[in-house]
Amino acid sequence: MVSYIRFLYALFLALDANFRLRRKDVSSEAKDPGLSKGYAFYCEVVQYMEHVKTHWRQTQDRSQCVAHDAVDKPDREARGTASSGVCTVDCARHNMKRTNGVGDLQLGERYMNMDYMFFKSIAGSDLQCFFISYDIACQWSIKLWQRMEEYSPTLHFEHGSRYVRFLVPKFHLPAHIEECNVHYLFNLMRGVGETDGEAPERGWSDTNGLSGATMNSGPGTRRDRLNDFWNDANFKKIVKLGTSLRDKMLNALPLMIEAAKAFVDLEKSFDSSTLATWLVMARRWEDDPKAPNPFQSAKRDKHLAQVRRELAEEAEEREAAGIEESNMVRADMHVTEFLVLGLQLEEQQRQLEHDMRAVGRHPTDKQRAAMTERSSKLRRKIVTWTEIQSLFFPNVNRLREMEDKARAKAAESQTVPGLKVYELKLWLPSQLVAFPGAWIPVDSSANILNAEYRLRVGQANEALDEIRKNLIVRTHLYSVKDRHKEGVRAHTRAMGKIAVVNERIRRLAEKYRAAWSALGRLGPVLGHMEWRSTLLALESDDLRPLPKNHFGDVTRQRATQSRNKKKSKSSQSKPAAVPVPRKPSWIWTTALSGSMATGSLGANEALRIEWAKTRAKAMRWREEVDLLEEEMRRVTQFMEWRAKWWTDQVGQRELEPGAQLEGETAYALRQADLQRRLLSSFQLLWSKANLQSKIAEARKEMMQGESDQASGDHEGGGDSTGADNEYDAESDEDESEGSEDEAVTLSTATSLVLADD
Asked: Where is the composition biased (Acidic residues) (predicted)?
């Protein structure tokens, strides 16, 4: 397990490639060598190209995840170009380019290119903890160390005794398979705080503006121009470090307190033995990702991700055998991918509709802007998707034309409001079956219909499973509120949490009903009606929890029996009414419920997952505050050292008195003064924001909450197993490990040096 002290000195790296920054095959190194020889961000060209030539025939295994083009199609089309793009290594915390972390690509995003930049950017590092973010880290990292052994000794990196973890950026991860969404998720990785790994993506929007100016440049001119741009970008970020660190800290402190309180409140309702069991499981998984995962349930149903994987594997087998139907692939996209994108757009439409209704009739300017931006973005996605749809189903355009004509005709007689983006009909195959004129004959499109049928079954199973879990969580929250929450403030906070779960259940119910409705149209056409025995119509009354006696809560059952006996004695003279127990909702008795319907196993599993997620969130926000505080200290210490370093340069060279000596002295003193003034401005910003006292107050509030929990002022509460207690135990062991030499990571230090130059 990564120690709490050590992760403060971890190096956070983010890798990515950009194919907009390509260069045409004009000029040459001999005619345009450039001024920089590996002194800035671009690596030294001669050594790099020697590496490329030596390992040009290196092969890459096919992706074990989804079909990443960077893995399965590394030799991207690059006719007429000397460079098909660039690959970079950035600081994942501060979005800065790293020294020798940039290189040209030849035919695409090949491992040998990314490997070279990665190893070159960390050469000489004495740090012991590394978090590496890359959008295909799940594949790239598998044989990284094996490939390293084949490279030049200058690229070798002693990794055996170091803590190195590979992650996938948060925005990119949902496109991966379910296994990747657990093992490579930042939110579940101990020590990363709220880092998201998307640093390179934020910079491409600015860098892409140079693509036109550098596309026809010679190699040296292009490298120099990009080096200058990135050096300027780094320096601007350094100048704004005071503001950015202040804003991040002010944002993180209340979120840290909120997450910690939520975790403490949740733990109060569990007994110590249950918490101890869960904590052991969580820590084992953090030490060894192959251990049982506290965030996953042993589900028996095939969820959407599993069905998607099966369809992809079946398509791959058919393509390999040469028996894939021609109408299953259009524009380099398989129909499975097309349908999955359609389901995602459908879900986004539902979410947008609810959010727009939730803001009310009088939204603020900020809310209106956010909704408008979301609507525009979703509309663009749908337009792109419909362009591909017309390749699969050409006649669907006629349906859209008919819709447009009908609206235009209606507008002649009365005012018709424009269609909102969430009202746009996607015309998925399950909707097209009702319009034979817009559909290919069923006998030649059975595979397409069957693909959506299977995806819809997986979607329904997944939604139903999540509904059951959230109903269990809601029941638990009500129990906690009734037993432990006293006072208006505590009651309001508890009801707020319950409202969040209720909203989650409502959205999941809508998702299930959409899948069930689609199955109702697809089933008769395909002759598949077996789903009706397990997937029933979901009414509002069905969204109820299990009866109390299904939870296996002995204390509650005994209390209920005791109350019933008292009532029986007090009313012996009256005719007793025969209680009619309410039957459990079908969602608990269906065969799909698996272990959840049989007793407390499923309930405990759902609660354990909720506990693990809440714990992880609390840990990440505490780590984020600690990382930000360490970065503030590190910036202060570095700038003090840097100012002294510039001052010490005065008189280092033996020069005759004159203009040269005076100029160099003035330059060094100016740079030293720049560092001091910059540091003073940072300290003034942080002082005005009263950051140190706010950090201390936030930690005091967290400690107070933990001490209240540990004091046992609640009924049946267990021992504190909070994230802070775990960290405190490790901090005592590792206090001696942090050294002054580790105070500055390579990313910040090299960026500051380059900015001075």
From this structure: 725-743
